[in-house]
Amino acid sequence: MANETNTQPLVGIIMGSQSDMKVMEAAAEILENLGVPFEITIVSAHRTPHRMFEYAEQARKKGLKVIIAGAGGAAHLPGMVASITTLPVIGVPVKSSNSIDGWDSVLSILQMPGGVPVATVALDGALNAGILAAQIIGTSNAAVADKLEKYKVSLKDKVMRSVEELRR
Ligand code: RP5
């Protein structure tokens, strides 16, 4: 999936492996719906450490405002990127194997040391990562904030439709 707009990407979506894409595409989809320009690529903390360092070091210089980083297993990507950049990093634990139900991914991303925060969403929670990134962008971008308002109304409408259906 590519960024469909020609404008400067504001959010960088990265993930440790192509196999994470099935989860991470939810972040790309919601950013597209909310009108937030993004870029998306694979960066592995363990298999391409130099690429990870360069990506994190260049991110702010090239105009990104937020990074969403997804990884599974020994999921060091979000934390390592957060250790290099001053941009906010949103971590998405990906359930990449069934062996320990994704706890490996969750704890690897969640348990950061003091001074190096990663905003960790739920296991496979790429949708919320995308929304959170848009909310950060929306603090200084009225068009994105307006779309977020409409999104919230759509959430409420969906619940109210179910309430109506149950009444019938
Ligand atoms: C992690 O290992 C990736 O983020 C992925 O979730 C997991 C498995 O990667 P593959 O072996 O499928 O490439 O680094």
List keywords for this structure.
168 residues, alpha/beta, Rossmann fold, 5-stranded parallel sheet, 5 strands
List the helices and strands and how they pair.
Blueprint: E1 11-15, H1 21-33, E2 38-42, H2 49-59, E3 66-72, H3 77-84, E4 89-94, H4 103-110, E5 119-120, H5 126-138, H6 142-167
Parallel strand pairs: 1-2, 1-3, 3-4, 4-5
Helix pairs in contact: 1-5, 2-3, 5-6
Bound molecules: 5-O-phosphono-beta-D-ribofuranose.
Structural description of this entry:
It is globular and about 55 Å long. The chain is built from 6 helices and 5 strands, in the order E-H-E-H-E-H-E-H-E-H-H. It is 47% helix and 15% strand. By secondary structure, it is of the alpha/beta class. Helix 1 (21-33) packs parallel to helix 5, helix 2 crosses helix 3 and helix 5 (126-138) crosses helix 6. 39% of the residues are buried. The chain has helices at residues 21-33, 49-59, 77-84, 103-110, 126-138, 142-167, and strands at residues 11-15, 38-42, 66-72, 89-94, 119-120. It binds 5-O-phosphono-beta-D-ribofuranose.
Short description:
Belongs to the AIR carboxylase family. Class I subfamily. With 168 residues, this protein is of the alpha/beta class.
Relative helix content: 40-55%
Low-pLDDT segments, ≥5 res: none
* Count, helices: 6
For this structure, the CATH topology is: Rossmann fold
C-alpha termini separation: 41 Å
Strand order of the largest sheet: 2-1-3-4-5
Average predicted confidence as pLDDT: 96
Proportion of residues in β-strands: 5-15%
Radius of gyration: 17 Å
- Category from helices, strands and their pairing: alpha/beta
The CATH C-level class name: Alpha Beta
Write the element-wise H/E pattern from the N-terminal end onward.
EHEHEHEHEHH
Please identify, by name, the CATH architecture: 3-Layer(aba) Sandwich
| Count of folded domains | 1
Number-wise, the strands total: 5
Anisotropy-based shape: globular
Ligands and ions found: 5-O-phosphono-beta-D-ribofuranose
Largest sheet: 5 strands, parallel
Pfam families: AIRC (PF00731)
Protein name: N5-carboxyaminoimidazole ribonucleotide mutase
Enzyme class: isomerase
Pathway: Purine metabolism; IMP biosynthesis via de novo pathway; 5-amino-1-(5-phospho-D-ribosyl)imidazole-4-carboxylate from 5-amino-1-(5-phospho-D-ribosyl)imidazole (N5-CAIR route): step 2/2
